[in-house]
Design brief:
- Keywords: Cytoplasm, Initiation factor, Protein biosynthesis, RNA-binding.
- It holds the Pfam family eIF-3_zeta.
- By secondary structure, the chain is α+β, with helices and mostly antiparallel strands.
- The chain folds into 2 domains: 55 residues, no CATH class; 375 residues, no CATH class.
- It is built from 13 helices and 18 strands.
- Helix 5 packs across helix 10.
Length: 502
């Protein structure tokens, strides 16, 4: 018995001297996290006061396997996400289990199938855009303003999670006219002083290209010394992305309600419905000098049902002989407050952020946090939708809008995509919001100028620029004549209008 107390393997010595043992008995180790440096440690049993030691590689791998099983279910469900599974390539799990943010959806599909007769001309890497800068770009003049917009209804500013309002479906007409089909741009193209034409959405997409993850594509059409940026027939370019930059984006199957394509369509409908619902149904309407160019002057019914949108054709001087006309959109006019000048017109761009299921993307439950911790909700959206928010901000700055209004729209039931409620609103000045999200407008203008310079050196013809679905690269192709003739015929056979939202 005298020697038993000195035997390091005896129970008496183990209970008396609680040094770090490395046994592998069942139930002896417990998993845990700790440490000032954020490392992972193992708890040495249930003995009070026992110290912790760093986890071994084997223990860390076992813990990660259990985390994946808890997240995706049994091995039959989560096995597909491992190396060589549906995410393909070398897998998207870094050594140590960290998630690769830039490859968050594995082998995503391209926005358009590349044909054999397309000639690859250039690959523009996003790393080349980081050092670009074009400061002091200002509007040269507003060529024309068309359409009519209603005034914003300030009663929606008082909405909160306790007084939510149902989102109402808009049954009017929404025009989605491309650059080449715009009659105003066709007339402006005859001016010798202007040589580049596009819309605010197209310009914002190019300027925010380094922030994008999903694939997208645009057409660049050279006619003589003019350059037109256009949308490909049959493209989903105007669809609003959801959780594009999230670390863990939704990856459901095509038939699931939370499939990325269905979420984008739902978000697009929500934006149209929200932007029209928050306007004053009765009262004055702000009319621009010119009528809406996309309404048939003889069709009074269509004129009454058309969505409230104002079009501002603004010209920008990018230097080196590049003068660009951008068709910009504003959604509303803000009514003057008591302490503001009554004659000053303040234009507003209205957008909607939507919550489909707070359990996805490490999201924040809006109904619990929106009233008390709105900053946390906005921070979560900046993490999951940084590209979308950047494009909205750039578009509002280009349009010369005084305010950028956000609405927070959520599903009534996470499993129902047809009913939504408005939980609140928030507004920013576009330039202030750009500073908050670290959006460098000088760099954005520099990216746009770089892309324009490339196409201005090309021969007249049709070109396509496509963001690679899995790499931070833009591919530029030279297209043959009538490359999308079949798509144009299919568009002509349809009614040409997007379905009403919600």
């Amino acid at each position: 018995m005298a020697n038993a107390g000195k035997d390091t393997k005896s129970g008496a010595f183990r209970q008396r001297f609680r040094f770090q043992l490395r046994g592998r008995g069942r139930g002896y180790f417990q998993q845990g996290f700790g440490g000032r440096g954020g490392g992972q440690f193992m708890s040495l049993g249930n003995f009070a006061g026992r110290q912790r030691r760093p986890m071994t590689e084997r223990e860390r791998a076992s813990m990660q396997t259990q985390q994946q099983q808890r997240r995706y279910g049994s091995q039959a469900n989560w096995q597909q996400y491992r190396r060589g599974g549906n995410w393909g390539g070398g897998g998207n799990w870094r050594q140590g289990g960290d998630f690769n943010r830039r490859m968050n959806r594995g082998n995503r599909n391209p926005s358009v199938d590349v044909k054999d007769d397309w000639n690859l001309l250039e690959d523009l890497e996003f790393s080349q855009f980081a050092s670009l800068s074009l400061p002091h770009v200002k509007e040269r003049e507003t060529c024309l303003e068309c359409g009519a917009v209603k005034y914003y209804d300030r009663t929606f500013d008082s909405i909160n999670t306790r007084s939510e309002r149902p989102l109402v479906r808009f049954n009017g007409v929404v025009h989605a006219v491309t650059t080449s089909e715009d009659p105003i741009i066709r007339n402006l193209a005859h001016k010798p002083s202007v040589n580049v034409f596009c819309t605010d959405r197209i310009a914002a997409t190019i300027m925010c290209a380094p922030k994008s993850v999903d694939s997208w594509d645009l057409l660049a059409i050279r006619i003589a010394d003019k350059l037109f940026f256009d949308v490909r027939p049959g493209s989903n370019f105007d669809h609003v992305t959801v959780a594009e930059t999230a670390i863990d984006p939704p990856m459901e199957e095509p038939g699931h309600i939370n499939n990325p394509e269905k979420l984008a369509l739902e978000a697009t409908f929500i934006n149209i419905n929200f932007s029209q619902q928050v306007l004053q149904s009765e009262g004055n309407t702000y009319n621009f000098k010119q009528k809406n160019p996309f309404i048939d002057s003889d069709d009074k019914e269509e004129a009454e049902k058309v969505a409230s949108v104002g079009y501002r054709y603004r010209q920008f001087d990018l230097g080196n002989g590049i003068n660009m006309v951008v068709r910009c959109e504003v959604d509303a006019v803000m009514p003057s407050r008591a302490d503001e000048e009554p004659d000053k017109v303040k234009f507003c761009c209205i957008k909607a952020l939507n919550e489909f299921d707070s359990r996805y993307c490490n999201g924040v439950n809006w109904r619990n946090k929106l009233d008390t911790q709105r900053g946390a909700v906005i921070a979560s959206e900046l993490k999951n939708n940084s590209c979308k928010l950047a494009k909205w901000t750039v578009a509002s700055i280009i349009a010369g809008a005084d305010l950028l209004k956000f609405g927070f729209v959520s599903r009534v039931n996470p499993k129902d995509t047809s009913h939504h409620v408005i939980l609140g609103t928030h507004e920013f000045r576009p330039t202030d919001f750009a500073s908050q999200i670290n959006l460098n407008m000088d760099n954005a203008w520099g990216i746009l100028r770089c892309v324009i310079d490339y196409f201005m050196k090309c021969e007249p013809g049709t070109y396509l620029m496509m963001k690679d679905p899995n790499k931070p690269i833009i591919h530029i192709y030279s297209l043959p004549a009538n490359a999308f003739a079949s798509d144009e015929e299919s568009d002509d056979s349809s009614d040409g209008q997007p379905p009403a939202k919600n």
